[in-house]
Specification:
- The chain is α/β, with parallel strands linked by helices.
- It contains 13 helices and 16 strands.
- It has helices at about 15-25, 30-40, 45-50, 65, 70-85, 100-110, 115-120, 130-140, 225-240, 285-295, 305-310, 315-320, 325-340; strands at about 30, 90-95, 120-125, 145-150, 160-165, 175-180, 180-190, 195-200, 220, 240-250, 260, 265, 275-280, 280-285, 295-305, 350-355.
- A hairpin with a 2-residue loop joins β11 and β12.
- It is globular.
- The relative contact order is 0.15.
- The structure holds S-adenosyl-L-homocysteine.
């Protein structure tokens, strides 16, 4: 009798591995960026395309899922910016909105602000068809003008109020290593046993490596992140507005931050692509360079904990606790700690703000 293989994969699950292997056989070792793009966004087998990765039952949890104060404070912050902009007709946009918990909290927190909902149209840039359906259900009735897009260029050209929480970490990166022979790229090849493995290849180094620090650790570069930041900054410089980028990341030298997570645990990046999230920490230094190139002013990055506290996170939680039952109170306080404490998300996560050069320094920076 033939016994079934251990942990059989759902049908179709191995297809992406096979596709990646055949591409490597044909074209040679694959840059990590191409592998990430396929694993996350392949139109049929990509991780984000097929599933809702968020929440306890999913693979990871994000700030808006942890506490309502995250979206409420950001909503209040956006309204202040909108007032400073002269209350224009504006595009309220979120890129990579996930379960739209953040957008739902922003819309709820701002619903009482005179003229705000009338002045905005809502724009969600989302590649996942599975998530789009959920987003549509969650936001039904919360605003009369909600639009979905696959690319930033589709968001109408008008003053922009943009948020991106845990979006940039999902954009593909390449990795380079400085060796005695010069720069080498870390790519994905095939082992003798025909398994995916990391190897180093001699590739012409991209221009960005001219300024890269030389160390014994890999250097990561995301062209997709830089390009995205440039178009956002360009839009803001031309039409006015602000953008808030929140993510885990670093500013100075770093190393290998490529990671994969499945069901709230680390997973091998090269195993079963398409079934687990793959991310890299965001290089905020490169994002600020890109934002400057796009013509925006830049504030931060600062630690998420510090920013939320300056916006009144503690006071908001104290106010909510006054009306809360004991269990809720405990959850509110635990949520606040998780978002702001330096040993939790408070320091690892950073907040970067890009604005039109005419805007005053935004609150919290
Ligand atoms: N901002 C949300 C979700 C973060 S998860 C939150 O804070 O909870 C990342 C989100 O980005 C998912 O919605 C994913 O489908 C989306 N995404 C990833 N890559 C994308 C891309 N290239 N274009 C548009 N959306 C993308």
């Amino acid at each position: 009798m033939i016994s079934p293989p251990p942990n059989p994969l759902p049908q179709g699950e191995g297809e992406l591995t096979n596709l990646i292997k055949s591409r490597i056989r044909q074209d040679g070792p694959m840059p990590i960026s191409e592998y990430m793009a396929l694993a996350l966004a392949h139109p049929e087998h990509g991780y984000y395309i097929r599933r809702d990765p968020l929440g306890v039952q999913g693979d990871f949890t994000t700030a808006p899922e942890i506490s309502q104060i995250f979206g409420e404070l950001i909503g209040a912050w956006l309204v202040i910016q909108w007032v400073l902009m002269g209350k224009p007709q504006a595009a309220l946009a979120e890129i990579g909105p996930g379960r739209v918990t953040l957008m739902a909290d922003i819309l709820r927190a701002t619903s009482g602000v005179k003229g705000f909902h009338e002045a905005i149209s809502v724009h969600l840039m989302e590649i996942s068809t599975a998530l789009r359906q959920k987003q549509w259900n969650t936001l039904a009735g919360k605003h009369p003008d909600i639009n979905w897009h696959t690319g930033f260029a589709e968001i109408p050209a008008k003053p922009l109020l943009l948020v991106a929480n845990e979006f940039f970490d999902a954009l593909p990166i390449r990795q380079f290593m400085h060796t005695d022979l010069g720069w080498r790229e870390k790519r994905i090849g095939l082992s003798e046993k025909d398994e995916l493995e990391f190897i180093f290849t001699a590739e012409p180094p991209p221009d960005i490596l001219k300024d890269a620090p030389i160390s014994d650790r890999p250097y990561e570069y995301s062209e997709a992140a830089s390009k995205m930041m440039i178009v956002i900054a360009n839009r803001i410089a031309s039409y006015g507005g602000v953008g808030l980028i929140i993510d885990y990341g670093y500013e100075g030298s770093h190393g290998n931050t490529l990671q994969s997570v499945r069901q709230h645990a680390f997973h091998d990046v090269l195993v079963e692509p398409g079934t687990a999230d793959i991310t890299a920490h965001v290089d905020f230094h490169n994002l600020t360079l890109a934002a400057a190139e796009g013509g925006s002013f830049i504030y931060g990055p600062i630690h998420q904990g510090e920013w939320l506290n300056r916006l009144g996170a503690k006071e908001r939680v104290t106010a909510l606790c006054e009306k809360a039952k004991a269990k809720q109170k405990k959850e509110l306080l635990a949520g606040l700690a998780r978002l702001t404490a330096s040993d939790q998300m408070g320091q690892l996560f950073k907040v970067l703000c890009v604005t039109h050069p005419s805007m005053p320094k935004p609150e919290g920076f």
